[in-house]
Design a protein that fits this description.
The protein is 40% helix and 13% strand. With 519 residues, it is an alpha/beta fold. It has one domain: TIM Barrel (Alpha-Beta Barrel), CATH 3.20.20. The strands form 3 sheets. The protein has an 8-stranded parallel β-barrel, surrounded by 4 helices. Strands 6-8-9 form a 3-stranded mixed sheet. It has a two-stranded antiparallel sheet with strand order 12-13. Helix 8 runs parallel beside helix 10. The two termini are 20 Å apart. The structure holds ligand GBH. Ligand GBH binds next to loops.
Length: 519
């Protein structure tokens, strides 16, 4: 009781202190609302109109059994032919932005500049112009996991030469589309791009080199990103006035107990996932200290002559630091962390010394990695604020998975909860969040889960040749929320503790004071 009064005072004081001119359940002025897709997951047309083969085409055609329902994305939602239906859906949603990705091999079929595929370029021109004609800003991801196969044949992201290819691809994209595209994402979830050089069979290119290939891939990706960023700054920004970011995925890591070792485990979990990229770009310019220490020690103990975690030169550290105009965040869910040894030998997982688990009371979804933990969003945003000096954050993905029903009450509840927590982070805690993106605009091909997991605000009828889109209940919820510029008061309960009473004993670490993450 006393605590509640004290919290209210704190919040009111803070609201004044940060000077919000609006109510806590309202969005700040000029806030961007967006919905997202990715080329491979929606476009289809995998080998028509001059498109080249990419690593997902290859992966799926050689290992159909590695996809849960043995399906592929050769046609998918056929957005290549039905992009106008996607635009109509966006209009219906009332969003001001659409995040989609370019298929590298649709524009450059060999991955290199020797062939530029006219039809591919025209497809993206039509999509971009269609969006602008209804006042929707494009946010374009350059790389959402679909490397041209000829570049994988050279070793893919473990080969440092990829930084040359990526910079050239980026320069083509900036020159062709940058007059109209003002928001760029270089890489989507680079941690998962790199994991595909560790795990061996989950994701293309399915290279098995845990604890080695993934660290090498990240090293190249960070340099590729920085080179694209520098190129834009030098050659395009003055004329095009755009912004460049990266979309980083992270779980929120909640310590299993209040013990110092569990708190340290949670911090390491965040460093080994988010910090792996965020520290070079938004922090010191280099990999997190704890990563450097642990991987170096392990590598030595394994009898290696070099660390499995590569080193950056002083020059590179300087160049990477600050190489993003905004912090793209893909956040879905949380996990519990404790100290221990887990995973392959060697692997990033084992190097981290973190063992993760789920709280059985967290509501499940149709994806086993994704539980509904709205308060994790608020902690995640506050962690970024505190750790990286409150950068502008654009939430580039957040979403919920079910079987695809139109009456998707679970999704509406998910979004209500997560968006409410985001608003608390903004309006109460002072986090600098500038935009929010729902994953996904439409039901699509969920990678190795095939079509068994649906994330869309709109469903797609995959039995119909024209793939008609249909609004779900969650689409209407979004439309209304955006028109009113607020989360409905009845679902936004400012002082309600979002952790259920029975969990408090077990997880006493939820927010009482928002900006103290673990105490
Ligand atoms: C994002 O990935 C992607 O950007 C998007 O393409 C995708 O459709 C969407 O979210 C929904 O999944 O090793 O426990 O993490 C989310 C990251 C990567 C989460 C693979 C699940 C496998 C299980 N996903 N991960 S785990």
């Amino acid at each position: 009781m006393h605590l509640a009064i004290w919290m209210t005072l704190c919040m009111l004081w803070e609201m004044n202190a940060i000077g919000v001119g609006h109510e806590v359940h309202e969005f700040p002025p000029n806030f961007h609302f967006s919905a997202a897709t990715a080329a491979y997951q929606v476009e289809g047309a995998w080998n028509t109109s001059g498109k080249g083969e990419n690593i997902w085409d290859r992966f799926i055609h050689t290992h159909p059994d590695w996809i849960l329902d043995h399906q592929n994305a050769d046609i998918a939602a056929d957005s290549y032919h039905h992009y106008q239906d996607d635009i109509n859906a966006l209009v219906q949603l009332n969003v001001s932005m659409y995040r989609f990705s370019l298929s590298w091999s649709r524009i450059l079929p060999t991955g290199d500049l020797n062939v530029i595929n006219h039809d591919g370029v025209e497809y993206y021109n039509a999509l971009i112009n269609g969006l602008l004609s209804v006042k929707i800003q494009p946010m374009v991801t350059l790389y959402h996991w679909d490397l041209p196969q000829p570049l994988q044949d050279l070793g893919g992201w473990t080969n440092p030469i990829m930084a040359d290819y990526f910079e050239q691809y980026a320069s083509v994209a900036f020159s062709l589309f940058g007059d109209r595209v003002k928001w760029w994402i270089t890489f989507n979830e680079p941690s998962h791009v790199s994991s595909a050089y560790a795990d061996g069979h989950q994701f293309a290119p399915a290279v098995e080199s845990h604890g080695i290939g993934d660290y090498l891939a990240t090293h190249t990706i960070l340099q590729s990103h920085t080179r694209a960023y520098e190129l834009y700054k030098k050659q395009f920004r003055r004329k095009q006035h755009g912004q460049i970011g990266m979309a980083l995925f992270s779980f929120w890591y909640e310590p299993l107990t209040r013990s110092p070792t569990d708190i340290a485990a949670a911090e390491r979990g965040l460093e080994f996932e988010l910090g792996w990229f965020a520290n070079p770009i938004f922090g010191s310019g280099d990999y997190p200290k704890v990563m450097r220490e642990r991987v170096d020690i392990n590598s030595k103990a394994e009898g290696r002559v070099r660390s499995r975690l590569p080193y950056f030169s002083r020059d590179w550290i300087k160049r990477m630091k600050g190489s993003c105009d905004f912090f793209g965040l893909n956040h879905y869910t949380s996990t519990l962390a404790t100290t221990g040894e887990d995973g392959e030998k060697p692997s990033r997982e084992r190097d981290s010394g973190v063992v993760v688990s789920e709280d059985a009371s967290w509501p499940t979804t149709n994806s086993n990695w994704l539980r509904v933990v709205p308060w994790g969003m608020r902690k995640m945003l506050n962690y970024i604020r505190l750790k990286y000096n409150n950068p502008p954050v654009f939430i580039t993905e957040n979403g919920y998975s079910d079987e695809g029903q139109l009456n998707d009450n679970g999704r509406v509840e998910f979004y209500s909860g997560y968006i409410s927590e985001m608003l608390k982070a903004i309006n109460v805690d002072g986090c600098n969040v500038i935009g929010y993106t729902a994953w996904s605009l439409i039901d699509n091909f969920e990678w190795n889960q095939g079509y068994t997991k649906k994330f869309g605000l709109f469903s797609v009828d995959y039995s119909n040749k024209t793939r008609p889109r249909r609004a779900k209940k969650s689409a209407n919820f979004f439309q209304e929320m955006i028109s009113n510029n607020r989360v409905p008061e009845e679902i936004f309960e400012l002082l309600r503790d979002s952790v259920p009473e029975e969990n408090k004993e077990k997880h006493p670490l939820q927010f009482h004071v928002p900006f103290r993450l673990w105490m």
